[in-house]
Write a structure and sequence with these properties.
The structure is a homodimer of 342-residue chains. Chain A has 342 residues and is an alpha/beta fold. Chain A has twelve helices and twelve strands. Chain A binds a DNA duplex (16 and 16 nucleotides) through α2 and α4.
Chain lengths: 342, 342
Amino acid sequence: MLESSLKPPALRSAPVTLDDVARLAQVSAITVSRVINRPGMVSERTAKRVRKAIDKIGYVPNLAAGSLVSQRSRLVIVVMPSIANHVFVETIRHLSQALAKERYQLMLCQSGYSEQSEIELVDTLLSRRPDGLVLTTALSNESARQRLINRDLPVVEAWELKDQPIDAVVGFSHAAAGAAMAAHMLAKGYRRFGLVWSNDARAASRLHACRATLLAAGATVLETVLVEVPVSVGYGRSGLTQILDHHSDIDAVICSIDLLAQGVLAEAQARGLRVPEQLGVMGFGDLDFAAHIQPPLTTVRADGARIGQLAAQFLLQRIEGRVGRGELVEDVGFEIVERGTA
Amino acid sequence: MLESSLKPPALRSAPVTLDDVARLAQVSAITVSRVINRPGMVSERTAKRVRKAIDKIGYVPNLAAGSLVSQRSRLVIVVMPSIANHVFVETIRHLSQALAKERYQLMLCQSGYSEQSEIELVDTLLSRRPDGLVLTTALSNESARQRLINRDLPVVEAWELKDQPIDAVVGFSHAAAGAAMAAHMLAKGYRRFGLVWSNDARAASRLHACRATLLAAGATVLETVLVEVPVSVGYGRSGLTQILDHHSDIDAVICSIDLLAQGVLAEAQARGLRVPEQLGVMGFGDLDFAAHIQPPLTTVRADGARIGQLAAQFLLQRIEGRVGRGELVEDVGFEIVERGTA
DNA sequence: CTGTTAGCGCTTTCAA
DNA sequence: TTGAAAGCGCTAACAG
């Protein structure tokens, strides 16, 4: 029996169950369950005895079993492109704190590195039977979206307002943001633009509106460099290099994200270009460092904390059935933060 | 019946089960299960019929039910202080990819913002019955550690080598890293130090070794500024300000992390201090921007990708029972990256 | 290759 | 305030 020398995972350890606690405390299983989940329903005397038993044998509830019968997992899954994506940090933080208060647990998933299709992703998520979903990354596949709608699962799409939301939405118009970026640069007098942009769907909405606004005002877009996600500072540097190789006469660079702007600034500095006089630079996101680099970065800020709080609030309302699907929509707006680079 | 007008979450939608698929495909439930989990065991003809039925009614397995009976959740929980902590990005990415290949799903948890105790945190994690745990943040509470050991749950502690690991470990000695940082600065001729440091346990190991090495060499540590986590660039700026207020004669600042060093650099630049001549600066982590700021930052690099790959490998070996608890230890080391700031 | 039976650990429902 | 019975959706173990 060679096989039996391999300890199968199932036998890892003698699992302590609710029944073990019940036996020890001399009550029925359901009473133990109530001590844990509805403390008010049990007399203090019994409850104390049960708690003592729980501590003594180190019982930890099995949520898989509980979810199976109660049809509530107390699990909320959050999908983000990658944890490297700093704009979502405050959103996730507030979301997580607000949900924890209501005893929901967050499961963070990165969608960006996986090769699976959106449908596979959605199925993977659904297989855990979450009570709700927060998507910080848009689902482009229609049948993936439909799968969520069919289940009537509470979903909050965060960071971007959409015309046909799956369910609740909290964010702002990326097209409006892109247009506002262009308008700011135009107002500052820049006319000959290079664009360094992340190659992802949401950034694309900003890009199109930004370009359109620039062109409509009679300005020129000499080159648009698309860089792969996840982006890094290095891409910003090489982006500017590439643009200058072809067009030494640009007077401004607009970037899809502050990280790229930081790279552009570094390269400009290395080449001795004066910012903002010879070259205007604008980013997006108002990341932590933006105010501290030299010159401080002109950028766009959205209130990530508020998005997180509202996302939590919306999700709870939907989970508790207080509002119907698609009834919750909030535009949190954004603001241009003018600093030293444009 | 006012209550009944509130749609209870349980009735959200008619859930499709394995039995529904079985009925439609005219096979038994277990055959459907096998098509999904052990495709090799079913004839292609039957499998095809089953797959068609699955697609037709949009069946998604309920992992809670499966886990309950199989005692395997195919879930790995990763604990990190906060997703803002950039040093872990590559580790999580590689971990996630390697585990996904073996059909394990990652659940990312942030420990840093929660007010719950370590014991509560561990219980929360255990209640999901993960097949394994990856801790990028050290558990200081002994009974929290003991709880994991008692269950014989596969655990990998990542990013720091420990004397008494819970189970497997992959990382490097933070004390050695701290000492190496000090040694580098001493070799560069700096003697009067200010330290700007994150107030967390792991950084503390580096701090103690760094200070000890500095002092042993006869150098002076004029001030140590401890800043709260999560750290930001701004703390680096105010840290340098605070040190200079008391000690205008420092000649170097060592930071617990590149973000703080970036702030120190920004403040030094604002004050017209020449780096590295008048002020040497050293960071830790070799974050994305480190090579691109001006002057490029001298720092310490650990191979986060390798840590992630090894963590995945170790975890899988432990889950499959191929090795026992505590048998897997790997020191991945670190390296000093000398650039322009010291 | 396919099916039958039993039961994972818990909470719902109903009754006392 | 407590308990008994039933069963959530699935897979292990065995049988055919």
